[in-house]
Design a protein that fits this description.
The chain is built from 10 helices and 14 strands. With 307 residues, the protein is α/β, with parallel strands linked by helices. It has 2 domains: 220 residues, Rossmann fold (3-Layer(aba) Sandwich), CATH 3.40.50; 64 residues, Alpha-Beta Plaits, CATH 3.30.70.1560. The strands form 3 sheets. The protein has a 6-stranded mixed beta sheet, sandwiched between helices. The longest helix is centred in the middle third of the chain and has 16 residues. The chain is elongated and about 80 Å long.
Length: 307
């Protein structure tokens, strides 16, 4: 076994017809981490996850889960991972309790070691244990999918867009449970289109675009790559002509007395920007700033990769 929860080495997938979904992707997911796997639609994220799940055959490269090669030790690899897919997949005529019991049986978990009710309590579905699964709301079904993925107590949990269509309160409950699992030693891999979620939850983030890995860094380091910063300035009189200065990358008149100025942190600072506004004869009444976030980095990286 290696120290990586998941090891991806030169992974390639070319579908029939020539579409190359993955092109030599390599990265490791550290044990005990919350790891973000991001990318635009069609970037190759789901193909990669489906290869780990055993649903898609890779064309080339290697993949290990908890140290087990998916080709050499497929049973051990599958036993080491739980996957929550984007699609909600379970029999609507079984109750949540029956769904978990059946899934545990498929993984060979003895009856005495099954944790079905414990898992339902953890995802706030204990009161729905014996209801038909088809009567559950969308958010409840999502949470049941997470419980279903954990029936065999895997050390690695993959969440593929788990909060799509889930309201804010249920999303917070889901993340609270995921954090609890992570504190208990479960490695979590997350794909999401909610970039603020990834920024808040993930220790490290990899970004895939057109089947190629374009970034793989600790979250704070990745966010630090964004050099643009925005400052919104309210001045003491109506703006007839917007001020101009070399330190401004972009300036916009948002309202009669409000300027929105974009500058690069590696070329100027907020003090220089405000001084330039004052030199143009404006008095400053109020100032607010917006730091660059993961969304800015994501867009810059994917745009550069598409250029």
């Amino acid at each position: 076994m290696t120290n990586a929860a998941i090891g991806i080495d030169g992974l390639c997938k070319t579908y029939q017809g020539g579409k190359r979904a993955l092109d030599g992707v390599s990265f490791e997911v550290p044990q005990g981490s919350v790891f973000g796997l991001l990318g635009p639609n069609g970037a190759g994220k789901s193909t990669l996850i489906n290869i780990l799940a055993g649903l898609v055959n890779k064309t080339d490269g290697k993949a290990t889960i908890w140290g087990f090669d998916i080709d050499d030790h497929p049973r051990n690899a599958k036993a080491s991972i739980g996957i929550v897919n984007q699609e909600i997949l379970f029999d609507p005529f079984f109750s949540p309790l029956e769904t978990l019991e059946i899934q545990a049986g498929l993984y060979g978990v003895p009856k005495g070691k099954r944790r079905s009710m414990e898992l339902l309590r953890a995802v706030h579905l204990e009161d729905k244990a014996n209801a038909y699964a088809r009567t559950l709301s969308g958010g409840m079904k999502r949470r049941l999918m997470v419980a279903k993925a954990m029936v065999h107590s895997p050390p690695v949990l993959v969440l593929d867009e788990p909060t799509a269509g889930v309201d804010v309160e249920l999303r917070q409950q889901l993340w609270a449970y995921v954090r609890e699992l992570n504190r208990g030693g479960v490695t979590v891999v997350l794909t999401t289109h909610y970039l603020e979620e990834a920024e808040e939850l993930c220790d490290r983030i990899a970004i895939i675009n057109h089947g190629t890995l374009i970034a793989n860094k600790p979250t704070r380091e990745l966010v630090g790559m964004a050099q643009e910063k925005v400052v919104e300035v309210t001045v003491d009189r109506d703006i007839v002509t917007a001020p101009d200065a070399a330190c401004f990358q972009k300036i916009e008149v948002k309202a009669e007395r409000t300027l929105v100025i974009t500058y690069r942190k590696d070329q100027a600072n907020a003090g220089q920007v405000l001084a330039a506004v004052q030199q143009d004869g404006f008095g400053i009444v109020d100032v607010s700033t917006r730091e660059a976030d993961l969304e800015d980095v994501f867009l810059n990286l994917t745009r550069a990769a598409n250029a």
